[in-house]
Task: structure prediction
Amino acid sequence: MEEQLLKQTVDNPNFAIIENYLCIKMPREVDHHGAAAIRENADRLLLNDKVQNIVFDFEDTTFMDSSGIGIIIGRYKKISCFGGKVYAIHVDERIRKILRTSGMASIIDVLS
Amino acid sequence: MNQVKKEIRLEFDAISENEALARVVIAAFLTQLDPTLEELQDVKTAISEAVTNAIIHAYQEKGGRIVMSAALTGDELEVRIEDYGIGIENVQKAMEPLFTTSPETERAGMGFAFMEAFMDKLEVESTVGVGTKICMRKKFYPVRNWKNSQV
Result:
């Protein structure tokens, strides 16, 4: 089980489970094209009992449209009913504007 | 100063890879205006929403053709995104925030809301079975203009 878990996280360097956080490194451009892959990878790892919270890391992200909001809302729904929290980190002005316009900024913790 | 209208027109397949293509083309077309990073980002987001709508809704992700045309008159941009897909039955309803026809793929239902928020003007014209035309306008306040005004 442990070994399998390790493999899951090593499979894709953009996804990691650190303590009870699922950390997702978001790609350079977040749009509909890449959204399904992020959702599927995230949901596979959310099955891990340890994960309670999610961290979306926008360090590399220079573009995001409402597809990114869909990804965040979907994951938020999955973990918030168990008391989990969602964080967005390394958020620059551009991404902040998208999070604010969509109302996301009021349900998740946004950190620059 | 006389205002010459400059135009481009691009026709491409309605596949998700082309979302980025449409954004890049518009960004390149706008460089002549010397836009701010924020203005550029706003337009790219709006274009991405319109093109994604055409791919997902109009063509149900089965492919088709999208025509993007853009015109610059002075510091004003007009962009049209046209598709020949299934059309929108109730445009007013479709434009309500959070309205989505594909909750199963987790569309946030914010496409039109973003287009409205990031552009100055948005017009949607749609006929069921014929297609949808989206027209967006935005006025730019190019960096070079404020530089000139300070000299």
Q: What stands out?
A: The interface with chain A takes residues 16-17, 19-20, 23, 37-38, 41, 44-45, 48-49, 52, 55-56, 105-108, 110-111, 113-114, 117-118 of chain B (CB under 8 Å). Helices of chain B lie at 17-30, 37-58, 91-94, 111-118, 143-150. The longest strand of chain B covers residues 5-13. Chain B has a mean pLDDT of 93.
